[in-house]
Design goal:
Helices cover about 5% and strands about 50% of the residues. It has about 270 residues and is mainly β. Strand 7 and strand 8 form a beta hairpin.
Length: about 270
């Protein structure tokens, strides 16, 4: 988690003038993308069509709003909101009414969106831990217990996948009950997620020197670097049909959204 925050801070400082579009999330119908971009140096949530048309700002506040994730029905977006990286709370916005609900729990919270039938979120109010809860008010919370110190969690109905940065234990693990099985030994893994069909994991890693987008089978048998290049490719979001990935990259000016078509490995610019 600490490495994720440090990386984000570095990107923000390096590209203080150029365009900065980050953390894309593909809608459940595969037609829209939620992401955050900067208005007067304050990150806000936007929605854009898959073809790059109809860009719309949906949060308008002096508070930071980052990390959007769609609800399963596509009627809400979960995100993190606060005065800066040290004061984030879990929040959601109703896309019809535009009403924002914010938990405002004590400490630093991160909203990571729906995880199967629950909400996955992270907290730094007491160390650093991941939880699932039954609703946006974070009721009936259950901690996802691990044996690691530096880690990130992705969760679906049937799988809990953990990327670990602890020295000597770097890699991607499958959590089953209280046991952990290493699926892949690879360092620098961030922003991982599980495909809708629960067959693959998508993530970024700087294992080759620059940050690339990877896809790995959830059975631990196949690991692929999809964007091996000199560019910095961040924050992948896999489409519901697993046919394309949206990610943030400095292939153009600053960081903008790009679409990787998995059928032919072509890459096209989405945000301008």
């Amino acid at each position: 988690m600490r490495s994720v925050l440090a990386g984000l801070a570095m990107v923000i400082s390096m590209y203080s003038v150029a365009q900065k579009d980050f953390s894309p999330s593909v809608s459940p119908d595969g037609k829209r993308i939620a992401f955050y971009s900067y208005i007067d140096n304050v990150p806000q949530i936007f929605i854009i069509n898959l073809d790059g048309s109809h860009k719309e700002q949906i949060t308008k506040s002096n508070l930071w709003s980052i990390g959007p994730v769609w609800s399963a029905k596509g009627d809400q977006i979960y995100f993190s909101q606060g005065e800066g990286m040290g004061t984030m709370d879990v929040a959601s916005i109703n896309l019809q009414t535009r009403e924002i609900v914010r938990t405002q729990k004590e400490g630093m919270q991160f909203g990571l969106g729906e995880s199967g039938s629950s909400i996955l979120w992270a907290s730094r109010s007491d160390g650093f831990k991941f939880y699932t809860s039954s609703d946006i008010n974070l009721g009936n919370q259950r901690e996802i217990v691990t044996e690691f110190q530096q880690y990130w969690v992705a969760k679906s109905d049937n799988y809990t996948i953990i990327s670990v940065s602890d020295e000597g234990k770097e890699g991607i693990y499958l959590k089953t009950g209280n046991s952990f099985k290493q699926l892949y030994k690879i360092g620098g893994v961030k922003n991982l997620s599980i495909s809708k069909d629960e067959k693959n994991i998508v993530f970024e890693s700087a294992a080759t020197g620059s940050s690339d987008i990877y896809m790995a089978s959830i059975d631990g048998r196949q690991l692929r670097n999809l964007t091996r290049s000199e560019f910095t490719d961040y924050m992948p979001s896999l489409s519901p049909g697993s046919d394309f990935i949206i990610f943030s990259s400095n292939r153009a000016e600053g960081f903008q959204l790009h679409k990787l078509n998995l059928e032919n490995n072509s890459i096209e610019l989405i945000s301008y």
